[in-house]
Design a protein that fits this description.
It is built from six helices and 26 strands. The chain has three domains: 4-118, Rieske Iron-sulfur Protein, CATH 2.102.10; 138-191, N-terminal domain of TfIIb (Single Sheet); 199-404, Naphthalene 1,2-dioxygenase Alpha Subunit, Chain A, domain 1. Strands 18, 19, 20, 21, 22, 23, 24 and 25 form an eight-stranded antiparallel β-sheet that branches. A four-stranded antiparallel β-sheet has the order 5-6-7-8, with no helix packed on it. A three-stranded antiparallel β-sheet has the order 1-10-9. The longest helix is centred in the C-terminal third of the chain and has 22 residues, at 346-367. The protein is an alpha+beta fold.
Length: 410
């Protein structure tokens, strides 16, 4: 029986129904995670303080709630107990704690005080799919071959429809946009005067690179969150455990960010489990290998990733084309470039494509569970560590990008 003092509290169900398998619940419109840690019940905002991932998709290990994104572990008091990307000797930030709610177990029921949940606020300034400031950037709206000569196409971007035409000579135009370009196999639109140029990707023009487009993805995703995910190497052991992620344990290697005006380049050497290496599968080469990663980013959302494999040999280039269609929908086209001195058979290319599709599917399986789709820009809205240098620099660049854009109110 619920006492009079707690008649306003929200009943989350029978105590015996709360297990060490985290689940999501709703308290007056706010999503919370519910999990049993030891003999106690934890109820907290269903967002990891690090990157906002849904903790309800996580696990309970050694009486701690473990985030599915980067493996951060939290005890019953909401305190962080482990950050794998920092290693066992890493400093755990004191601010890294869950936004807990007040919970009581009474009469065989789990009760939560809704007033304690109401106090869990949203972050401040964010990047949303329909921000007008994004009009000052170049955005990929389709693949080049989707607008044939002497035809036009109506395409979506930032909640608006854009009519793109290509004449018989191959020249592409869009009367509504400030600028339009046919670049690296995609049509790009700058709705307003762009604050940057287009990212130069020399690999598209170099010989012996095989270009393989990935099937298009479209769904309820935040453009900023998808970008943040692809800039991040700390999630590899957790999100990609079935493809190339190694077992958690080693801290993420230190790296530097080479800043440009509204972009940057990052070089990072990381261990991988080379499950796509046929020689490793035949035990002719170790499964545990290394790859050198080069990230090239240009605001607001252009990202190219180059992977150079030390033991397996060869390289992979990945162009991520994020297109914010409307408030809650983003389309993602991914272009794969493969290079190896011995070239590839058609079957090998098909296998490489299938492997990369599996990698992206692992990312999207978690991204699809995000409740809040906007990317926080305020650096105090999330917890950052030295493993997050690229993500932090991206937020700083976007803050500058937004501040420099004058949005017309006409």
């Amino acid at each position: 029986m619920v006492t009079t003092e707690r008649t306003s509290w929200v009943d989350l169900g029978a105590t015996e129904g709360v297990t060490d398998q985290p689940r999501r619940a709703d308290v007056d419109g706010t999503s919370v995670v519910v999990a049993k840690l030891g003999e106690d019940v934890l109820v907290a905002l269903d967002r990891c303080p690090h990157r906002g991932a849904p903790l309800s998709a996580g696990t309970v290990v050694h009486d701690c709630l473990v985030c599915p994104y980067h493996g951060w572990a939290f005890d019953i008091d909401g305190e962080v107990t482990a950050i794998p990307a920092l290693g066992t000797e890493g400093h755990l930030p004191k601010r890294a704690r869950l936004r807990k709610a007040s919970v009581e177990q009474e009469g065989g029921r789990v009760l939560v005080d809704p007033a304690s949940v109401d106090a869990l606020e949203r972050p401040g300034r964010t990047v949303a799919n329909d921000d007008r400031e994004l009009g000052a950037g170049w955005h990929p709206v389709c693949r080049s071959d989707e607008v044939p000569a002497d035809e036009s196409s109506v395409l979506s971007l930032l909640g608006t429809s854009w009519t793109v035409r290509r004449d018989g000579a191959g020249v592409i135009t869009c009367d509504q946009a400030f600028g339009i370009a046919d670049h690296v196999g995609h049509v790009w639109i700058a709705p307003d005067e762009p604050a940057t140029g287009l990212l130069t990707i020399p690999e598209f023009d170099e010989p012996d690179w095989r270009h393989v487009p990935m099937p298009r993805v479209e769904g309820r995703y935040g453009m900023g969150l998808l970008l943040d995910n692809q800039l991040d190497a700390g999630h590899f052991p957790f999100v990609h455990r079935d493809t190339f992620g190694t077992a958690p344990g080693e801290p993420l290697p230190s790296y530097d960010v080479e800043r440009g005006e509204l972009g940057f380049e990052v070089h990072l050497r990381v261990p991988v489990a080379a499950r796509n290496d046929v020689s490793a599968a035949a035990d002719d080469r170790p499964l545990e290998q290394h790859r050198n990663m080069t990230y090239r980013y240009l605001a607001p959302s252009t990202l190219f990733l180059r992977l150079d494999y030390e033991q397996m040999g060869g390289s992979t280039g990945i162009l991520f084309c994020f297109t914010p269609l409307d408030r809650e929908t983003t389309r993602m086209d991914v272009d794969l470039l493969f290079h190896h001195p011995d070239d590839f058979t058609d079957q090998q290319l098909a296998d490489r494509l299938a492997f990369e599709v599996s990698v992206v599917a692992e990312d999207l399986a978690l991204q699809s569970r995000f409740d809040f789709l906007d990317l926080p820009l305020d650096l105090t809205a999330e917890i950052h560590t030295k493993a997050d240098k690229a993500a932090v620099e991206m937020r700083r660049i976007l803050t500058t990008f937004y501040a420099d854009v004058v949005v017309s109110t006409a």
